[in-house]
Amino acid sequence: KNTNLNQAMGQAAEAVARVERLTDVRPLPVATKPLSVTGYEISLKDVSFCYPGSEQKAIDSMSFTIPEGQTYALVGASGSGKTTIARLIPRFWDAVTGKVSIGGVDVRDIAPKELMQHVAFVFQNPSMFKTSLEENIRYGNPNATGDEVECAVDLAQCREIIDRMPLGLKTKIGIEGTYLSGGEQQRIGLARAILKDAPIVVLDEATAFSDPENENLIQKALGKLTKGKTVLIIAHRLTSVVNVDAILVIDKGKIAEQGSHEELLIRQGIYAGMWNEYQQSIQWTVGTGGHLK
User: Fold this and answer.
1) Are 31 and 109 within 8 A, CB to CB?
2) Per-residue pLDDT reduced to its tens digit, 156-169
3) d(CA 113, CA 116)
4) Cβ(14)–Cβ(41) under 8 Å?
5) Separation CA 75–CA 205 (nearest Å)
6) DSSP assignment string, 267-281
7) pLDDT tens digit string along 161-203?
8) Cα torsion 170, 173, 175, 178: sign
């Protein structure tokens, strides 16, 4: 009993410490005279960033521009800085030095509500609320019509999910309802992003943990979501970035290489090495007798 009590007290103490760490974080300053965004080009200029409590630069004097309507992909080893770059665009954090801008406007000069309206996110593990599937999707646009919700469901390849649920879109998920697989949650998250219809889309390894069937469906949905938008993709599977406008190879917080898939293969640098390793990994198949070929 004492062991159980000590364990419970330790867990409670850790929970309290986490809450205290959250309350210790100062909110980002809000512009007193916010500026409106009229274009959707994304630009980082001489941007550096360190996480609180760390002296190591997660991003080190980085500069690049994503023209409006184009799709750029970030590739690189785990911890290279890809996710940090994606978090700076919607201002989850502020750059320590340099400037992040949208349509030429520093994100620090954009009202937070307007900034959130301009950017849609698709993460590895989208947040699902313990409510109905419809309300989870409507979170992207609470004022959407029923027809718009249904359209987003179809574009996100979610129709078969909805059709097999006992109450369709009214089915609750979570403790009192139905549980969704990781790939199904990703498609619901995509429906939410499609319904939002923001001009900028940030994709953080949206298919990294999907099975082949779900990945195929998610790739179709991504095509609908990103059409005509300014898009930043954090890529895990290199096949998903073959046709993007440009690939940025990130290494230790810096851009090591930049170019199209074909250009980077010709260069025979870091990306070409990653591509060759990736191709070898996906060619491994289980042969007869369980041996790898």
Assistant:
1) yes
2) 888 999 998 888 99
3) 5
4) no
5) 10
6) HTSHHHHHHHHHHHH
7) 999 888 899 999 876 667 888 878 888 888 999 999 999 999 8
8) positive
